[in-house]
Design goal:
The chain is α+β, with helices and mostly antiparallel strands and 151 residues long. The protein is built from four helices and seven strands; from the N terminus they run βααβββαβαββ. Strands 1-2-3-4-5-7-6 form a seven-stranded mixed sheet, with helices on both faces. The longest helix is centred in the C-terminal third of the chain and has 15 residues. 32% of the residues lie in helices and 35% in strands.
Length: 151
């Protein structure tokens, strides 16, 4: 497996990975191809260097980090992880962990000392994954849980 920086041209791969990963979790996801493409464009505009794809013979996972994110909770810029998605057939194979490791490393390079993310309250698999990687719950807003970790 290789992990490489994302490019604008990866939009098709992003849509495929995103749709596959969010099957049965639509309440936490964009559901149309147009919305997902717009989301990818927004991620690229936020921090184009913070997007990474995991590839086997083709892209199977993605992480989108934002080193420019201002957290109103911390009242400073933190490393925000906007997205981490892996195609379902590759779940449990360490790809998400490698992507998270790459994203945390990127945020450290950008001199961030904290990382935060939001996860759906009923997305138990994701919550356990992030807890395993040192994230702790730091509040709730509607159907979302804010998770936070010192990096």
């Amino acid at each position: 497996m290789i992990i490489r920086r994302g490019k604008k041209e990866d939009i098709k791969h992003f849509v495929e990975i995103y749709q596959d990963a969010y099957e049965d979790l639509e309440e936490y996801a964009y559901t149309t191809r147009r919305e997902i493409k717009n989301y990818y464009r927004w991620l690229m505009n936020r921090d184009p260097e913070g997007i990474f794809f995991a590839e086997l013979s083709e892209p199977v996972g993605v992480i989108a980090c934002d080193s420019n994110w201002f957290s109103p909770f911390e009242m400073k810029k933190v490393g925000e992880i906007h997205e981490l998605a892996v195609k379902r057939e590759f779940w449990g194979k360490g790809i998400g962990s490698k992507l998270l490791e790459k994203g945390i490393g990127y945020l450290r390079e950008k001199n961030k000392d904290f990382a935060e993310l939001w996860v759906g309250e009923r997305n138990d698999r994701a919550k356990k994954f992030y807890e395993k990687h040192g994230f702790k719950e730091r509040g709730r807003f509607g159907k979302w849980i804010r998770m936070f970790r010192k990096i």
